Amino acid sequence: MSEARSEASVGNAATFDTHPGADAGVTPESPLQWSRVQGRVTEEGGAAEQIRVVERPFLGHLVLRGGAITLDEAVRAELGVSLPGKPLGLVLDAEGSRSVQWVSPDEWLVIVPAGEEFELENRLRARLGDAHFAIVNVGGGQTLLELSGEKARELLMKSVTYDVHEHGLPVGKAVGTVFAKTSVVLRRPSEERFELVVRRSFADYCVRWLRDAGREYGLRVESASP
Amino acid sequence: MTQSNRLNQGGRIDRSRRLSFTFNGQQYTGFAGDTLASALLANGVDIVNRSFKYSRPRGITAAGPEEPNAIVQLGATEAAQVPNVRATQQALYDGLVARGTNGWPNVQRDVMSWVGKLGGSFMPPGFYYKTFMAPASMWMTYEKFIRKGAGLGRAPTEADPDIYDHFNQHCDVLVIGAGPAGLAAALSAARAGARVILCDEQEEMGGSLLDSRESIDGEPASAWAEQAVAELGGLANVTLLPRTTANGYHDHNFVTLHERRTEHLADTAAGAGREGEVRARLHRVRAGRVVLASGSHERPLVYANNDVPGNLVAGAVSVYIRRYGVVPGQRLVLSTNNDHAYRAALDWQEAGREVVAVVDSRAKPDGDLVKQARDAGIRVITGSAVMEATGSQRVSGAKVVAIDTERFVVTGKVETLECDTIASSGGYSPVVHLASHTGKRPQWRDDLLGFVPGEVKGMHFAGGVHGVYALGETLTDGADVGAEAARAAGFEEAAAIAVPEVAVRQESPTSALYQIPHEKPPLRAPKQFVDLQNDVTAAAVELATREGFESIEHVKRYTALGFGTDQGKLGNINGMAIAARCLNRSIPEVGTTVFRPNYTPVSFGAIVGRHCRDLFDPERYTALHQWHVENGAEFEDVGQWKRPWYFPRRVNGKLETMHEAVARECLAVRRGVGILDASTLGKIDIQGPDAREFLGRVYTNKWAKLAPGRVRYGLMCKDDGMLMDDGTTSCLAENHFLMTTTTGGAAGVLEWLELWHQTEWPELQVYFNSVTDHWATMTVTGPDARKLMSEVTDIDLDREQFKFMDWKEGKVAGVPARVFRISFTGELAFEINVQANYAMHVWKALFAHGEKYDLTPYGTETMHVLRAEKGLIIAGQDTDGSVTPEDLGMHWAVGYDKPFSWIGQRALTRPDTAREDRKQLVGLKPKDPKVVLEEGAQIVLDPEQKIPMTMMGHVTSSYYSPVLESGFALAVLKGGRNRMGETVYLPMSDGSVHQAEVVSTVFIDPKGERQNV
Amino acid sequence: MFHIFCPYCQEYREEEEFHPSGQAHLVRPADPASVSDEEWGDYLFFRDNPRGIHHEMWVHRLGCRKFFNITRDTATYEILETYRMGEQPSITAANAEVRREQGVQTADGGWQTVGAQPENSRLNEETPS
């Protein structure tokens, strides 16, 4: 057990580094592993289609709970972005690789590059001290799919009830909504792409649905290397 | 066959593209741009169907969705069969195959026609109720015969090869109907910048403009329509949906549109050269504002034999001539009560055929169209109406007579005019259907002689639907309403488009006329049809009123008026008018029916969309799913999860049965070591200074002293004291807990916690988050579990260091893990939680090390047997919302002395929950060890008692135990704990009776020593 | 299909994202032990079922997971307002005047039914406010 973990466990909440470390020789499997085995997902790259769906596996996903004012300061200091205070806000850092998303008045979703989440959690906890908050690592439970291409919007219209038109979902907005017969978090981080945060156990269903709904346009599902 | 009724010129068809089609086995040709109906009329096909009840020959009557007769079965192959298609709405394509849905064996000679000949006395209204009531057992037989005879179309017996889907649409303004009003409204809204969807059910947008005699800005009206459609089509903020019917208007401006994408081209999308494309699409539109521009339907008049082929609605005659270049006959008599219908006579004459007469019920009609007709030399007979059509397979003449509409009598001598076509017009009924789908009643307007929509929030009306009929006014109205809708949707600057010029036409007022009096009394006159599709006559409506039905809703149900796919499009108003006359009331006093979705039939495919086949319902997989599949697991559905049920092995070349596999898996756990994928258990992360207090309020037992590193089992009740869910909760740190729930209860329990936190105890500082998917959970259990675990983990497994109900953190197979010493099998057990992405690595490592212990994967069935042997309940199986913790014998898990009145405590102090004769959980041991009792079997004390016997309880869980070498069961039994050792009886449906002894719920290791080793 | 304004997400969402949770403003007795069985039964099981204005609790299950309240007309299915947990409705059955001033339609009939005389003629005359 690492030092950091032991120390943090002493406090009021138990933190836990879920990763075995690069030297452990353990190969993780993304939530789309079964879809890959079934031939529903290919490696990144290849022929251009009207829609590309790319999984970004193994990212760090943390749920932050607490008051906006309390959390904002800590997030600003540790991530360099301000907490989206308005409902449904999504902010990215300058590199575009770290994001904070409003989920509810006391809940935010933070997504960071793979392996950063445990350090971040500890730093945030240290900064937040005795304030009432919660940080929950949910990285094993969900994965991120990026959608891009000319017909991505039409594909989403078949899949989610939310208004995916520019008026409904401009850049910088993220919503939890209905996707086919399950739910997803739908995000618009940039002009070029949409993102879906899907739950692990539903990931194959979502991919099957996307492939079926996207067939008339041409669609590829890929998984990026971590 | 030649297209004998086709004109050499005119119409919006392409005469250079001939299409061949088959109707009732006969080959015909038509042109691109035809509907099936126009092509049939062009070919002189008079009889297209047999009627529903009387089996009378029927021909095409209308030109749109209101068509009651020409309802066909479509499809060249079995898989492509579509029932109940209106020929008037089906575009013609090459190779189309159709037949009339009614008429068996064929429409020309029908075995049911004797029913029609016998007439109304044989099948009066309420016929089914009156005739086939007894004996009830025969109804199925009667129904089969009647249905086959009546022919309601049939579903295909082969799978539909096509795909369908849904589109979730959002817009500022949805315009329904692309006639003059709809086009003008869409232009106003679109030019203001609103997101506009314009839908229209026809092949071509334009509505009445496409068959209008009038000019717009000096050009044919159809040219303006083309221009408007072209402009709208070029705008990025406009979505045009032709061939799309708005079928349902639901709450808060939610509208379902049914778009047919390939059905105008071929039987199937593949047949249309569009393999893989969507055949039909359901648009689920949430509209800021809805503009209903659905226009009106012309009402036919109700006169004797008005169903004989050759009787048409007047406007349909104009549509066939002007849009399709088809004149459906040679000699026309027009019977009307209004000016507008005169255009049918003028169109007919201009097409070169003979107009025998226009019969006008009004004394002195003198509008512009009337003058035009007179100027063209057409005979106009005033103050009269067509009383009866003659002919049987086709109209041969019209009996015309002077009438007194006030007294409802004929006043003159009958003149018979020779003709083959009678067009009638009784005025216009606004198409109010969508406006009443949410329950708003239409309002009667005497000046219009029709119902207009009641006020519907969020909906605007344009054109004919609210009684604005004249073309110029319709355009102005549409433009204004479109702008108004856009403004209401937030486009404050929206203004009406400049409306083009249309010459004003003088019209004389329409007279109120629905049913034509006959020289014979109504019940003796030849049949006067009100609803052609359902074969409802004026006499039937009258009889219903005489039999005491006064509300139009009751009359409707008694007679079938407006039933089925028709939804009263042609007949409703006439039916109400007749009922009103018979009851001596006004039409609004009789009331109106409220229309329901859908406006026209929607295919099941479109309703289902892609929620079918393997996308019917989500399948949830654990991180170990691939391993389970590769190792031959049979799966069980647990909610949406696919869980391994059992893992049959191949023994001597034969795959084990479930019984064999489960027995082997059970023994492996009891004697060696087994492993279960328990990842589906719900897991909730709970953090905050008040987490402990909260647990104490939602669980029945105490949590105040649970130390970090310890685990406790808890029961959760609703406030009625009944068990809701159970599971273990671990103290991770002073203010941090991990709760587990049943697989099925995961989402519900999380919401339950949130409910109490958000609504009752917001002052408690605590947060709940689902981590079900984050963790994979593997249960290693059995006497050899420690040996196996010691090979893969750095955790000290010493029984003193790592006690039962402890949890520890460490590495398992190199992966950080939390390991819980909890047991659902009664054996030594370790529940390993790792981040799900690493689960497969750990699982495989366990098997690599487990080989020497014959590590046995087991599924849910073995899990059930093992837990039941220990008397461990499954919430939802052994409980059903009526079982308290006390009923389960779990007094030890109820903290009555906790300071806060936890959820369920108050209810458990009621006298009823303290009754000694409540159903209590017990074990049952069948006297015959080979017997496995049926789950759900009822328990009685006296098997000789006469039925109804006194039920004492029922079996909740029952299995065969390979350890006990006997069947065994858990059951709830009245006063069960005081019946230990008694014999109870379980009568089965085959007459046999099982005997069982009431025993403790714990069948194995009653002291619980095996899990504590 | 309802279109519901989530007072937390601050926008309208489709009904599929929500779940109804019964009557709003139920209060659990502060000291359950002190109430009679009858009072406890009322709290547990007895609910209002008005024709007209009703206050209901809903949860934005697939969105922000927050509970909130809706004032709804059970006859017209119209949602008159939504408000956060802990807040009070501004429209109630007792202050129908407020509702009229706000230009909301009155209940004018149920679903699918029809009135024969005399009810129907009365309804036909009734003008929405």
UniProtKB/TrEMBL annotation, chain A:
It comes from the Bacteria. SUPFAM superfamilies: Folate-binding domain. Residues 1-32 are annotated as: Disordered. This is Sarcosine oxidase subunit gamma. It comes from Salinicola acroporae.
UniProtKB/TrEMBL annotation, chain C:
GO terms for biological process: tetrahydrofolate metabolic process. It comes from Salinicola endophyticus. Residues 104-129 are annotated as: Disordered. GO terms for molecular function: sarcosine oxidase activity. Transmembrane segments: none annotated. Gene3D superfamilies: Folate-binding superfamily. It holds the Pfam family SoxD. This is Sarcosine oxidase subunit delta.
